[in-house]
Amino acid sequence: MNWQNSKVKPLGVWFSIFPETTLNLNFAEKLEKMRNCLGTWSLRRLSLIGKITVIKSLIASQIVHLLSPLPSNHQIIKEINVLFFHFLWNGKGDKIKRNVIIRDYQDGGLKMIDIISFNKALKSVWIKKYLDVNNKGKWKLFIDAELENLGGATVLSNLDKVDTKKIAKSLSPFLKEILEIWAELNYQDQITSVDSFLAQSLWHNSLIRIMGKPIYYKNWHQSGIDYVNQIIKEKPNVFLSLNEFEQMYHIKVCPLTFCGIVSAVKTLWRKQNQALTQNAEKKESLATVMLKSNKPNRLAYKILIEAKTKSPIPSQLKWYNATQDSYDFDWQKTYQIALKCTKSTKLIEFNFRFLHHTLATNTALVKMGFKNDVKCTFCNEEPEKILHLFWCCNKIQLFWKHVFAFLQQCNILSQNCVPSESAVLGLRPETSKNGNKIDLIFLVARFYIWLCRSKEKIPVVESFISYLKFYKKELEPFHIS
Ligand SMILES: [Zn+2]
Q1: How far is the CA of 439 from the centre of ligand 1 (A)?
Q2: C-alpha angle 300-305-309 in degrees, rounded to nearest 5
């Protein structure tokens, strides 16, 4: 047998006696492979949705076994991210913000992978494994040894990222990273109910501080004292006296220490009790939820994405300002219309671009310097903006009028129904009986208008009706003729 001095590669992962070498060997090799693979795929004309599928199923899956067990090489993860978005937009720069496209469909995104959150989510699964008593892995002994002075799993209570960084300073880089990820996922800065106040951990909790720091008292923890309710005499906020406390737990504690803890918990109560809702249900801790979950990585990914994508989507404001219809937008519903009425990725993607105002109208093309004239392709009078092109333009108003008449004739629309601007534009779902089919017809009509624009032809209802036949199956039971 040859004894390797520097590096070995069991199970497809390089291991080296030098941690840096391990990281570089593993990731550099994969990065090169990914680059080649995406290079091949980029020769095909794939839709955004198609590309996202390629990234997720062919590429990201290849690095799962590298991301999960190794400390992160942030430089390489950054490079992977660049590679993915370069592929997605053909190297022409992002047309839609990253914090929009990574959202779930109903939140206005296309579920593009966010490799940074993906990496964190994979690593967070180690916490579940560590907490799971049924997992008897020997590796836990190493973690136990490292965390011994911190009280083992107690360190997972409720620390924020800053406090975690300070506490984890002397730990191994991998464990340190895992704890920081946990803090990002788990930390709650608000108490929502009396129950959750009473269930607060006294230890490693960024909400309970003495001299500006979270605390951990080993002898208390070893005597089984871990939670706020254990120093409370009467709910919610009458505390035990020192005497009562010592008798109850049969331990002697320093009076100053005891007063310190009580006053830290009182401070927390004072700061947050106004915000408590009376009958708020006690939220299950993330650790409990994770332990129950079969897909803890997905759960973690969802939390991370939600935290990243709280800001409103810019295109929503544009619609508010542009539309005349006084309609209360329910964006979750809006974003789901296309998905609910068709399986065509072409239509779904078109609608996505339409809703996010990224179709290259003449106004946009002039801004980008590709055209000199903003005027509408159809009427050649007004500036060509999305709302004009798909609704306000007099040529288009005529087109819609004919479409409505046709739909009434086929009994798809009722006789005296004139659809509103917001329904025609797919900003809200049609609530009438055939709503789903009507939504699809309006979507196909918008797509048809867009096709006409690229051919510089004015939309006419007859050719639209024959175009609609491509969607015959999805429009059943209606027969378009
Ligand atoms: Zn026009």
Answers
A1: 23
A2: 155
